[in-house]
């Protein structure tokens, strides 16, 4: 993490329901519980993007808030900036079991988000290079959009623990 903070990159805080794509490198931070983030990175072009989705599906006018829309928009914006679909590297994060589950529901919101994200990445033929998903703890995620590197800290009892 120290290396990330030493980088002279502009810093962006990504709110739930937002996405970030830019050819100019940035250090993007977001906090995930049951939400999921997908990062896409084109190593040849040297830029990437990230989304933060709250629910597996939703209304078209709220595309950034749900997995279906957020990943599709992220991919579209990457391609419009010159990324090569065949070279994109995807990473998936979040989907923790931080909320209770009603007895009538088989999967938590986090599990539903992860299932939808994996299905969509497969359907879009995007290579999933890495993931850090599920579990009972939230995550603080740092994404270097200029290198594709991701640093994760898991939250436990209001403290942060480094994950390497």
What does this structure look like?
The protein has 164 residues and is an alpha+beta fold. The chain has a single domain (2-163), classed as 2-Layer Sandwich (60s Ribosomal Protein L30, Chain: A). 21% of the residues lie in helices and 37% in strands. It has helices at residues 2-6, 67-80, 109-123, and strands spanning 10-13, 19-22, 26-32, 36-42, 47-53, 88-94, 127-133, 139-144, 150-156, 159-163. The strands form two sheets. Strands 1-3-8-9-10 form a five-stranded mixed beta sheet, with no helix packed on it. Strands 2-5-4-6-7 form a five-stranded mixed beta sheet, with helices on one face. The N and C termini lie close together (9 Å). Mean pLDDT is 89; it is low at 158-164.
């Amino acid at each position: 993490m120290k290396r990330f903070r030493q980088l002279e990159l502009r810093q962006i805080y990504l709110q739930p329901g937002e996405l970030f794509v830019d050819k100019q490198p940035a250090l993007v931070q977001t906090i995930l519980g049951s939400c999921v983030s997908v990062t896409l990175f084109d190593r040849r072009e040297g830029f990437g993007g990230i989304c933060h989705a709250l629910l597996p599906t939703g209304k078209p006018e709220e595309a950034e808030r749900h997995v279906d829309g957020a990943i599709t928009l992220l991919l579209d914006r990457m391609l419009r900036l010159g990324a090569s679909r065949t070279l994109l590297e995807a990473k998936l994060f979040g989907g923790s079991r931080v909320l209770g589950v009603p007895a009538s529901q088989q999967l938590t919101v986090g599990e539903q988000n992860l299932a939808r994200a994996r299905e969509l990445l497969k359907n879009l033929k995007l290579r999933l290079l890495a993931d850090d998903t599920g579990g009972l703890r939230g995550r603080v995620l740092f994404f270097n959009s200029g290198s594709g590197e991701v640093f994760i800290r898991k939250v436990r009892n209001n403290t942060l623990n480094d994950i390497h």
